[in-house]
Sequence to fold (176 residues):
Amino acid sequence: MVIREANRQDLFSIAKVQVDSNRSTYIGIMPERYLEGLTYESKVNEWDKRLFDNKRTEFMFVAETDNKNIVGFASASLDETNDIYERELYSIYILKEFQRIGIGKLLIKAIVERYIEEGVRSLILWTLQDNPSRFFYEHLGGSIVDKRIINRGGKELQQIAYAWEDITSMFKVKLR
Ligand SMILES: CC(C)(COP(=O)(O)OP(=O)(O)OC[C@H]1O[C@@H](n2cnc3c(N)ncnc32)[C@H](O)[C@@H]1OP(=O)(O)O)[C@@H](O)C(=O)NCCC(=O)NCCS
Fold:
């Protein structure tokens, strides 16, 4: 498995991972109609803007198999939701059949190492309270710091924020 920064040629694979992973993760949580309505095309456009626009503050790492298939990704950006934390882990999605084999940890580690090198120390992320994946963040030492309600397809959903005040503690990364 290779972890590398995303480029524009990856956009369709990224969109496919997101839509397929959203559908397997949020079934029973988000309305079925909403999940069925997600399209690869709209995600390609969304990620093209988020990652490759001139003013971009977001970056992404992808996880690629030896056969050059992208099976997961994680992105991070300036935190626009909360004044206290410097950066936000904006998204992390791995295809169902590739979950729980260490890829999530590798992707987060790549982001955290980049930020530590840049002098960033604090990180926040938002996740659905009903998503069992949130225990992954607890496993990495995140603490619940905030709550909000979002709407997906007409259904109100509770989100919670996990944060790390000092990301150097997450993987015991050695500072140079
Ligand atoms: C959540 C997610 C990114 C985690 O990545 P992953 O590759 O499956 O997790 P890893 O295999 O790297 O696990 C790392 C550690 O976290 C633990 N862990 C992972 N998922 C967990 C979970 N749901 N509950 C509890 N612990 C979990 C693992 O046991 C592992 O422990 P270890 O360090 O002792 O070996 C991935 O499962 C995923 O994409 N889920 C569906 C999409 C999703 O919900 N994304 C997040 C949206 S906010």
About this structure: Helices lie at 11-26, 32-36, 40-52, 103-118, 134-139. The pocket of coenzyme A is lined by residues 21, 25, 92-94, 99-105, 127, 131-133, 135-136, 139 (CB under 6 Å). The mean pLDDT is 95.
